């Protein structure tokens, strides 16, 4: 049985030049992303992206560009025998208080419903305190990486309790995919 790995898109899968990636031309994948995903795939994980993308509601990132970025990620991984099962995006503004917007667990719970996922053995890797809180609310461990918005413990301390901390997704893969 494959285990679910929930990934935040920004900071985990790609370089986020600013708080928002406006278009496909600005989208870059970290050089270690594919290697890390291969390790997780070989360890029995399937992938779901759960990502806040309020740049859509702010008019910074057109919805069509967000879709192109998702397609680009699929193009990168498919030749290696796996893909992202689905991309879940919360595009509402923070103040809209949407149940999908992290720190709420709505995107994770929707994936559970859509795919009949067992949360046993599932985990989430993200770069913000809100990712970790969403994981905790869904009942799975959340691991924090420092390759995105979170740049130090001071950014999240007191807001959440990550199950572990890593420099980036590859470091997390070395620790978690082998465990």
From TrEMBL:
Chain positions of site Stabilizes the phosphoryl group: 51, 102
Residue numbers marked as site, Contributes to substrate recognition: 101
GO biological process terms on file: carbohydrate metabolic process
GO-annotated molecular function: metal ion binding; phosphatase activity
Enzyme Commission (EC) number: 3.1.3.-
Needed cofactors: Mg(2+)
Database matches in CDD domains: HAD_HisB-N
Protein residues bound to Mg(2+): 8, 10, 127-128
Keywords on record: Carbohydrate metabolism, Cytoplasm, Hydrolase, Magnesium, Metal-binding
InterPro entries: HAD-like_sf, HAD-SF_hydro_IIIA, HAD_sf, Heptose_bisP_phosphatase, Histidinol-phos
Similarity section: Belongs to the gmhB family.
Protein name: D,D-heptose 1,7-bisphosphate phosphatase
Species for this entry: Candidatus Nitrosymbiomonas proteolyticus
Classification lineage: Bacteria, Bacillati, Armatimonadota, Armatimonadota incertae sedis, Candidatus Nitrosymbiomonas
């Amino acid at each position: 049985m494959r285990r679910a790995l929930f990934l935040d898109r920004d900071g985990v899968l790609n370089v986020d030049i600013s708080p928002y990636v406006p278009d496909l031309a600005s989208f870059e994948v970290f050089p270690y992303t594919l290697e890390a995903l291969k390790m997780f795939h070989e360890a029995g994980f399937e992938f779901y992206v759960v990502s806040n993308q309020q740049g859509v509601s702010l008019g910074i990132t057109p919805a069509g560009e967000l879709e192109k970025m998702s397609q680009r990620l699929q193009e990168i991984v498919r030749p290696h025998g796996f893909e992202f099962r689905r991309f879940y995006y919360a595009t509402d503004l923070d103040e809209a208080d949407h149940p999908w917007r992290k720190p709420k667990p709505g995107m994770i719970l929707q994936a559970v419903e859509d795919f009949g996922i067992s949360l046993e053995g599932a985990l989430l890797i993200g770069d913000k305190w809100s990712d970790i809180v969403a994981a905790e609310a869904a009942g799975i461990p959340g691991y924090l990486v420092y390759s995105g918005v979170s740049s130090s413990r001071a950014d999240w301390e007191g807001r959440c309790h990550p199950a572990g901390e890593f420099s980036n997704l590859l470091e997390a893969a070395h620790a978690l995919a082998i465990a």
